[in-house]
UniProtKB/TrEMBL annotation:
Domain of life of the organism encoding this protein: Bacteria
Name of the protein this chain belongs to: Alanine acetyltransferase
Record-linked InterPro entries: Acyl_CoA_acyltransferase, GNAT_dom, N-acetyltransferase
The organism of origin for this protein: Piscirickettsia salmonis
The enzyme's E.C. designation: 2.3.1.-
Listed GO MF terms: protein-N-terminal-alanine acetyltransferase activity
Pfam families: Acetyltransf_3 (PF13302)
Length: 108
């Protein structure tokens, strides 16, 4: 592990409480550390924290279809594809399509 290096960033945003108990997930890795499994480890820890500590029920990640590494990451972490949102976000000067991926806290 790289204890003295920042290898990437995760964020949980737009937490909605009440009957929804959901939030959006964002993340990125810094290039020298990409494709080494660190993001998988980090996302697993973040999901555990979101469900066990923050008591969320659902996390959602919206991913551009061409971002194969990101799709691979969420699949490995247990997210399920829920749908496709055309023209979802305005990025790099154009409206971009996104796939909607989510993970639900295990029912007890």
């Amino acid at each position: 592990m790289h204890a003295d290096h920042l290898i990437g960033v995760f964020n949980i945003s737009e937490i909605v409480r009440g009957c929804f108990q959901s939030a959006y997930l964002g993340y990125y890795a810094f290039e020298p550390f990409a494709n080494q499994g660190y993001m998988t480890q980090g996302l697993r820890l973040l999901v555990e924290h979101a469900f066990n500590t923050l008591k969320l029920h659902r996390l959602e990640a919206n991913i551009r279809p061409e971002n194969k590494a990101s799709i691979k990451l969420v699949k490995k972490t247990g997210f399920q594809k829920e749908g496709y949102s055309p023209n979802y976000l305005y990025l790099d000067g154009a409206w971009r399509d996104h796939e909607r991926w989510a993970i639900i806290a295990r029912q007890k």
